[in-house]
Write a structure and sequence with these properties.
The protein is mainly alpha-helical and 223 residues long. Helix 2 runs antiparallel to helix 3, helix 3 packs parallel to helix 5 and helix 12 runs antiparallel to helix 13. It is elongated.
Length: 223
């Protein structure tokens, strides 16, 4: 069994999720390795987008007192799955557990900001993004997130524009960041710039609902 687990770990490390799953499914769990197997199953199912199976195994790990590193990884994965499946309160719970355990990172704070925004709490979202930027003032995701929320809420439009522009400068091929910059320009009344950036964001990701929504609003305003 140890050889099978070692090979499964190698396959996971090489991102061969299907290969690792095939190996794990053929292995018999034992008392001393069942949480390690649950961890590997959970990671594979998360990567493959099979959410129900992912949750089943990830939850086993976080309640099974495995080593702290594995627990942190699985709590982050749980938060990710919960957020993608619009269970934002559950995502927030897992992230809060990470934060309360002393695991305070830019990723955790930015993710907390996202879940707060998704639940209609912009003030909390800005607070969490602020904490993320204190840890890393140059983090593109946190810069974009804070800028976008400031723009949406009509708060300090000049700062919103600066933050969104800075995020896009760091990742010029990111259509979500370009969409945020377009929206910041739009909220300030710079319609030509808004139209230019939203057009480029839409060309990169034409099926994104939020980008399409912003493109429609900007189009109506510039007729």
């Amino acid at each position: 069994m140890s050889e099978a687990l070692s090979e499964a770990r190698r396959l996971v490390a090489s991102r061969d999720w299907l290969g690792a799953l095939a190996l794990l499914r053929g292995a018999e769990p034992e008392e001393d390795n069942r949480f390690e197997m649950a961890y590997l199953f959970g990671i594979c199912y998360t990567r493959l987008g099979e959410w129900d199976d992912a949750l089943l195994y990830l939850e086993q790990v976080v309640t099974g007192a495995l080593d702290p590193v594995r627990e942190r990884q699985c709590r982050m994965a749980l938060a990710y799955v919960y957020a993608l499946t619009a269970r934002h309160k559950l995502a927030e719970y897992e992230l809060a557990r990470l934060r309360d355990s002393g695991y305070e990172t830019v990723q955790v704070y930015s993710f907390l900001a996202y879940t707060a925004w998704a639940q209609g709490r912009p003030g909390d979202s800005l607070r969490w993004y602020g904490k993320a930027l204190k840890l890393d003032p140059e983090n593109a995701n946190a810069l974009n997130g804070m800028g976008y929320i400031l723009a949406c809420e009509g708060m300090d439009g000049a700062r919103a524009l600066t933050l969104c522009r800075k995020a896009l400068d760091k990742a010029p091929d990111n259509p979500a960041y370009r969409d945020s910059l377009a929206w910041a320009y739009f909220k300030l009344g710079f319609l030509d710039e808004a139209r230019d950036h939203i057009g480029r964001a839409l060309a990169q990701r034409p099926s994104a609902p939020e980008i399409r929504e912003h493109a429609q609003a900007i189009k109506l305003a510039t007729r």
